[in-house]
TrEMBL record:
<dbReference type="InterPro" id="IPR012347">
    <property type="entry name" value="Ferritin-like"/>
</dbReference>
<protein>
    <submittedName>
        <fullName>1,2-phenylacetyl-CoA epoxidase subunit A</fullName>
        <ecNumber>1.14.13.149</ecNumber>
    </submittedName>
</protein>
<dbReference type="Pfam" id="PF05138">
    <property type="entry name" value="PaaA_PaaC"/>
</dbReference>
<dbReference type="GO" id="GO:0005829">
    <property type="term" value="C:cytosol"/>
</dbReference>
<dbReference type="InterPro" id="IPR007814">
    <property type="entry name" value="PaaA_PaaC"/>
</dbReference>
<keyword id="KW-0560">Oxidoreductase</keyword>
<dbReference type="InterPro" id="IPR011881">
    <property type="entry name" value="PaaA"/>
</dbReference>
<dbReference type="InterPro" id="IPR009078">
    <property type="entry name" value="Ferritin-like_SF"/>
</dbReference>
<dbReference type="GO" id="GO:0097266">
    <property type="term" value="F:phenylacetyl-CoA 1,2-epoxidase activity"/>
</dbReference>
<dbReference type="GO" id="GO:0010124">
    <property type="term" value="P:phenylacetate catabolic process"/>
</dbReference>
<dbReference type="InterPro" id="IPR052703">
    <property type="entry name" value="Aromatic_CoA_ox/epox"/>
</dbReference>
Length: 320
């Protein structure tokens, strides 16, 4: 073994010891290149998910049933945009630029959560997204508040607080509809039927098929596995559905006394793979909307840069 290899092993051992000791890794600390790449992948996917996630709900802003509902939905969607911004900033600390991340998204190279490729067909879907999608997001993100990478963990703390409000507003929409007219109750049930399985897919493949889990758990990027988090979400959500008097669309869902958890049916992994590959109901529409928004904002970015350059030139001229 050469001197360089020995030096590298020492650095890697010190890094892992720091992780084991629950000390946060900060941007200027030494880190293995694969750790950096794994974080860039996960955090940029997460940032893209927040921003693409604004689109399905944005579809209902102009048709919210009251001014109050519209104001709440607008605040929620703006929060998601903010989450994207914290996450893009946190990812930039790893040495990738925002432009590079946008290029990866717009060229279709980067992934974002499969859930946002499903359509929002009626108002009840807004309730289901808040209740289920934000509920699943919090379940996953609470674990990420203890992620070994400092900037990601810190961003998650604030994001989780805001996601809790999102989950409550969604559940409150569902409660209103489930206790409303027969038609409203049917809409709430129909939304639950359509969003349940895609929500379970948000947690990713089963642990046995999860390419990154083992390494990410060792590095304490992930604190709980995909299956553990999915189970946690199911256990928390079933009583909430019961309270609403709505039925979760899974014949195999049953409390298992021995395990102390709910058993549930198998996810349609073929559908998951297809959506992730780009063939979901809304993949093309979502990506096009992001590309159009980026192009539409080009003149604003150019004007801001031109203004900054002019200010700098004036300052330089005054100092000369
Ligand atoms: N969709 O080896 P694993 C939100 C990919 S935010 C698409 O298990 P990992 C807020 C995965 O990237 C929701 N792709 O991967 C909101 C990998 O592919 P790659 C987003 C998926 O990273 C609410 C491959 O499969 N949350 O909802 C999905 O260890 C309402 C193998 O998978 C986050 O991003 C999927 N569902 O675990 C906004 C949380 N699942 O990259 C608006 C942070 C897996 O090798 C409205 N992310 N893949 O090409 C994570 O915790 C992890 O990345 C997992 C996946 C758990 C998602």
């Amino acid at each position: 073994m050469g001197v360089v290899d020995r030096e590298f092993e020492k650095l890697e051992a010190a890094f892992q010891a720091k992780v084991e000791a629950e000390q946060r890794i900060e941007p200027k600390d030494w880190m293995p290149e694969k750790y950096r790449q794994t974080l860039i992948r996960q955090m940029s996917q997460h940032a893209h998910s927040e921003v693409v996630g604004m689109l399905p709900e944005g579809n209902w802003l102009t048709r919210a049933p009251s001014l109050k509902r519209k104001a709440i939905l607008m605040a929620k969607i703006q929060d998601e945009g903010g989450h994207g911004l914290y996450l893009y900033s946190a990812t930039e600390t790893l040495g990738i630029s925002r432009d590079q991340m946008f290029d990866q998204l717009h060229s279709g190279k980067a992934k974002y959560s499969s859930i946002f490729n499903y359509p929002t067909l009626n108002w009840a879907d807004i309730g289901a997204i808040g209740w289920l999608v934000d509920g699943a997001a919090i379940t996953n993100q609470i674990a990420l508040c203890r992620c070994s990478y400092g900037p990601y963990a810190r961003a998650m703390i604030r994001i989780c607080k805001e996601e809790s409000f999102h989950q409550r507003q969604g559940y409150e929409i569902m409660m209103t509809m489930a206790q409303g007219t027969e038609e409203q109750r049917d809409m709430a049930q129909d939304a639950l039927n359509r969003w349940w399985w895609p929500t379970l897919m948000m947690f990713g493949p089963n642990d046995s098929n999860s390419a990154h889990s083992a390494q990410s758990m060792q590095w304490k990027i992930k604190r709980q596995s995909n299956d553990e988090l999915r189970q946690k979400f199911v256990d928390a959500t079933v009583p909430q559905a019961e309270f609403l008097n709505l039925r979760i669309p899974d014949d195999q869902l049953k409390w298992n006394e021995d395990r102390g958890h709910y058993d549930f049916g198998e996810i349609d992994w073929e559908e998951f793979r297809n959506v992730v590959k780009g063939n979901g109901l809304c993949n093309r529409e979502r990506l096009q909307a992001r590309v159009d928004a980026h192009e539409g904002g080009r003149w604003v970015r150019e004007a801001a840069l031109a203004h900054a350059r002019k200010q700098e030139a004036r300052k330089a001229a005054a100092a000369a």
